[in-house]
């Protein structure tokens, strides 16, 4: 019997800045390489470039400024009401620069991921490229992880590794990492679209089996399991 076709994964993107990871998803979708529907872009910065990028791909976008709300919980409730209204299967934080409250996160556990520019658990938080160079790391990269209440602390799904070169400065290293973030994001979302990834008891599961280590992006842009 032929395998029934899965409905396209409904994906919402949260972003505060330029939106290159959003564009990577939108391009892959438009090229027919990623069976998703981008159902909304949400930002905490009304001037964020990602809003313009969303318009270019005809994806509905909304921005809400936190200062227009009484406090952080009120802002977050309004933002996530809007997110919930588009009924996403997956919420992708791609450069969303605000902390999320634990209630917001707990209510969406297993359905919200974040891309972070380091090989987690190294270098949580900001200025990751600078810190990798300062610490003499020989390898750096990016991680996609499930969002949990702990900042950049959720179970890591997949990583892309980049060597740190002798003459790297933070900007050069950042641009090489970013070039790998995009295929990492696409390949990870592709696994969600195939309904192959889940979070069970704090473990990342692929096809129902817990991963011993995060998947690794190979040079061809495919995620590989580590050999046991
Ligand atoms: C990326 O480096 C991502 O890892 C980090 O924020 C940046 C967002 O870039 N969380 P963009 O807005 O997708 O271009």
Element layout with pairings:
Layout: E1 9-14, H1 20-30, E2 36-43, H2 49-56, E3 61-63, H3 72-85, E4 90-93, H4 102-106, E5 112-116, H5 128-134, E6 139-146, E7 156-163, H6 170-193, E8 197-200, E9 203-206, E10 209-210, E11 215-217, E12 223-224
Parallel strand pairs: 1-2, 1-4, 2-3, 4-5, 7-11
Antiparallel strand pairs: 5-6, 6-7, 8-9, 9-10, 11-12
This protein binds 5-O-phosphono-beta-D-ribofuranosylamine (GRF).
5-O-phosphono-beta-D-ribofuranosylamine is lined by residues 15, 17-21, 94-95, 115-117, 142, 178, 181.
Overview of this protein structure:
The protein is an alpha/beta fold. The chain has 6 helices and 12 strands. It has a 9-stranded mixed sheet with strand order 3-2-1-4-5-6-7-11-12, sandwiched between helices. Helix 1 links the parallel strand 1 and strand 2 (36-43). Helix 1 packs across helix 6 (170-193). The longest helix is centred in the C-terminal third of the chain and has 24 residues, at 170-193. It starts with 8 loop residues before the first strand and ends with a strand. The mean pLDDT is 97. 5-O-phosphono-beta-D-ribofuranosylamine binds next to helix 1, strand 5 and helix 6.
